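Long-time lurker. I teach an intro course on protein structure, and each term I like to show students one example going from raw sequence to a predicted 3D structure in token notation. This year I'd like something fresh instead of my usual example. Would anyone be willing to generate the tokens for the chain below so I can use it in lecture? Attribution to the forum is fine with me.
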Amino acid sequence: MKIVIVGSGAVAINLAYGFATTTNFQVDIAARNPQKAKDIADGLDLKVYISSIEKCDTNADLYIIAVSDRAIEEVYQQLIQHVDQDSCIVHTSGTTSIEVFGSEARSVGVLYPLQTFTRNRIIDLRDVPFYLEAKDEHLKRVLVMVVEELEAKWDWLESDKRKAIHVAAVFACNFTNYMLACANQVLHEEGLNISVLQPLIEETISKALESENPIAVQTGPARRNDSRTIYMHEAYLKNTPELKELYSIISEKIMKKFE
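-- Reply from a regular --
Happy to contribute to a lecture. Here you go:
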């Protein structure tokens, strides 16, 4: 099978690396900035053919658009000017509907990898769950072949439910990482490293996943309605007003939850 991955960001490079190293598929990368894609691929010792979108293989079995949500429609319109009308084309977005391809499009769909991807950090795609959507039976067969060749977990999921997963993922992943960055800022001011929190972070995530509802295992001064401790913490944060504001807002939300 021949796959062309359109894009040069973290998702595109991870997919290209995963397909090229763990499957028998032939993988190309098509990018609006081919030199950028080549520099990244070279840094990972990733041996794939890289071209512009205009010069990509026009007879690939699958085209995967792995770009930002706001660029999907534009890139799709650019791509269909150069490839066969019946080409199988998918995007990788959690939030963007399959309808972004238009009502007349046939072999179009979604290949959504539920994971956080960072440039220059390669993830084993066999550990990533994929959520699929397809408009026709041919593309369904192609997508199943792709994820099964990867030996990845997968399921079919319509756009609205996929969007719910993506929203939840922002809370669970992106917001959590920002909170860790805030914790790191507090520690850094005292010459401490975030590694001191590692056992705490691991236990927090572990018990949240083991519980039926993470709110049931909520702890901390706000959960206890410990206003004295909260006041002292807010006083400690007086020189970092943005952290103090965030601390107060989250504490208030937790206390309200347990009224």
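Some talking points for your students: The longest helix spans residues 159-189. The helical segments are 10-22, 34-43, 72-79, 137-150, 159-189, 198-210, 227-236, 241-257.
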